[in-house]
Amino acid sequence: YSPRNYKQTIPLQYTWTGLEQESVQPTAEGAIITHLRGGESLLEIHLTGATFTPLGLRLMGQGTGDHQGVATFCTYGFLDFETLSTSLISGGQPNYGFTSHYALSEFDLEKLRIQGGSITVELHQALGGVQFMTRGKARISLMGTVQRRGERMKNRTNIT
């Protein structure tokens, strides 16, 4: 979302959390728009979920015998921001439903272009306590969002 694109509004469910009430402003349509500084654009990254193949579930369930109770989570880092993690979810089709928001300056967008315009998402299996095993990773391109700002882009990837 770009502050220059006045017809686009940030959906209520994707507004920044933890902000004081005076830092958000209702629009005529009733949605809330987050105040972005001049030249900043809002980038949302939403990890919906995963679907595991029967073989993948069997491999992750080896040793425990529990193929459907496999607990997984995903992590990713973006530019110089902190690494983020989804919640721990069990099952063969986990629904992470995780959205992160980034206020990006023109400098950040240029840095994204230079670094290849993608993020690496890693899939991890929880093994108990704080132990986990990384089961795979994939790169997801963000270049479409940089080139067509203000538009919603959807990407899907296979993690092997």
TrEMBL record:
Annotated Gene Ontology cellular component terms: cilium; cytoskeleton
Subcellular location: Cell projection, Cilium
Ranges of residues in domain RPGR-interacting protein 1 first C2: 34-159
Keyword Thylakoid: no
Cross-referenced Gene3D superfamilies: C2 domain
Main location: other
Keywords for the protein's UniProt record, in alphabetical order: Cell projection, Cilium, Coiled coil
UniProt KW Lipid metabolism keyword: no
Entry's family note: Belongs to the RPGRIP1 family.
PANTHER family according to UniProt: PROTEIN FANTOM-RELATED, RETINITIS PIGMENTOSA GTPASE REGULATOR-INTERACTING PROTEIN
Protein name from the UniProt record: RPGR-interacting protein 1 first C2 domain-containing protein
